[in-house]
Amino acid sequence: MKKSFLVFLLFGVGFAAVNLPAAAAPAKATPPNIIIILADDLGFGDTGCYGATRIPTPEIDRLARQGLRFTDAHATSATCTPSRYALLTGQYPWRKAGTGVLPGNAALIIDPRQTTLPGLLRQAGYTTGIVGKWHLGLGGIGGPDWNAEIRPGPLEVGFDYAFMQPATGDRVPCVYVENHRVFGLDPQDPIQVSYGQPIGNEPTGKNHPELLKMGLTLGHDGTIIDGISRIGFMTGGHAARWKDEDKADVFTAKAVDFIGRNTNRPFFLYFAAHDPHVPRVPHPRFVGKSGCGIRGDVIVEFDWCVGQIMDTLERCKLTTNTIVVLSSDNGPVIDDGYDDRAGPDLQGHRPAGPLRGGKYQVYEGGTRVPFILAWPGRVAPGVSDALVCLVDFSASFAALTGQSIPAGQAADSVNVLPALLGESRTGRPHLVEHDGGRMFGYRNGLWKWIAPGAQPRPGIASRGALYNLSGDLGETNDLGVAQPERGRQLATELDSALQPAKSPQ
Among residues 423, 321, 350, 393, which one has the least CA distance to residue 115? Predict the structure, then answer.
């Protein structure tokens, strides 16, 4: 991306937002705008308001002071694609085949006929937009043609506007897609993508490690883009390729622009940040700004993104009529394939806080995530221990906006709106936790059961494991032998929950 264009995004859009005229006073109360800010791999203990002391997150902490901070909020799954699928569809991802972590050239996994969160809100009169990471597939059977119109995609499942990276930052293609087209693509330099055999003549991390600006620990040895080798192979599309250091700036500018263009009507913005997912490549102005090396620095960068959105709402006089939710798609991971010193640089920082496990695991650290909801003037600041989940957005925001969910749709989404608004400390009664594969945990209140699974896992006995989180948040004391009846009861409840869902709740 050319430097001049980036400067326009960062400053031209910002000044446009500052000079927007104030909206005329409405004759009646308008529906609140809704912004969901979703971090990528941000842990329960990664921010100041959740106990971090070595990583400064003043903007997230400011949001927490303005709103309600939840201590028992969850993604459905401990990996990204399945948890994002649940967030947008209101359905547990394991109910549908093919919702595991996707390659970058996968077809769209959300059926355009499904009821989705953006679709419900658009039906309620909202303008809907997604900016950031998608990773739910694009195109029909066989995946997208990157050199033509790319559909179906976000616009076919409820969004009016989309500016996104197709998958993760460590997967090809390393380009942005705006609505139905690769952003900035030169037709004379067509894109080809493969997740099988290498294509083209571009060097790979496997064969040319000397060209890398970031080493590898496992995998990620495909085509080198911007000095970093990725998962998969890509050739072409050189003018459209992103620069890793600029991604947070680009996404934030697009989010600010979307807000600025919709000040006079209700909007829903799904801002899906890339940080702190690998490859961790902060903009130079954030390098060294944390006490925990490069992983801490990209969390500081994410915190800046949050602050830009909050400041934009203030400039546009939208703060008191906007619900802002901040969360993460799953728990933290330290070494995720790149040698970025994330482990040695922790310096005592605990990304999952007091929780056990993290990304890819069914322990609490895998799915319990930071979750803050701010609606100044409507939701009183405080802390809630209500059990809530990202899958509950569909039912809860449908209730907020007076929408009905068709029978059989969003069937795992529970209306926890009273808990989200701080009117009740009771959330959902139970929750299925999922590692992203075939391992399951089950919460009933503060009791937790972890099923043994098809394959042995470290720390999980062949009979499963039982924990009482009220006195053992770190899941260290397996009570399965001491209380076998309770374990069997929760196992039965889990088996029942894994059966096909019947209707919306």
Answer: 393
| H/E run at residue 215 | strand 215-216
Specify whether the backbone of 259 is left (phi greater than 0), alpha (psi in -120 to 50) or beta. alpha
Domain 3-19+34-182+243-429 -> CATH class: alpha beta
Q: How far is CA 120 from CA 88, 89, 268, in A?
A: 10, 10, 11
Nearest to 117 by CA among 442, 400, 475, 449: 400
Domain edges within the chain: 3-19+34-182+243-429, 192-235, 438-497
Q: What is the pTM of this model?
A: 0.93
How many Cβ atoms from other residues are within 10 Å of residue 53's Cβ?
11
CB 183 within 8 A of CB 190: no
DSSP secondary structure, 65-115, as one string? HHSEEESSEE-SBSSHHHHHHHHHHSS-GGGSTT-SSPPTTPPP-S-TTS-
Do 3-19+34-182+243-429 and 438-497 fold alike per CATH?
no
Q: How many CB atoms lie within 10 A of CB 494?
A: 21
- CA–CA gap between residue 365 and residue 351 (Å, rounded): 9
Please write the tens of the pLDDT for every residue from 300-337.
999 999 999 999 999 999 999 999 999 999 999 999 99
**What is the CB neighbour count within 10 angstroms for residue 426?**
12
Q: Which fold has domain 438-497?
A: Arylsulfatase, C-terminal domain (3.30.1120)
Provide the token pair at 439.
């391992």
DSSP class of residue 386 equals -
CA dihedral angle for residue 503, residue 493, residue 85, residue 253, rounded to 10 degrees: 110
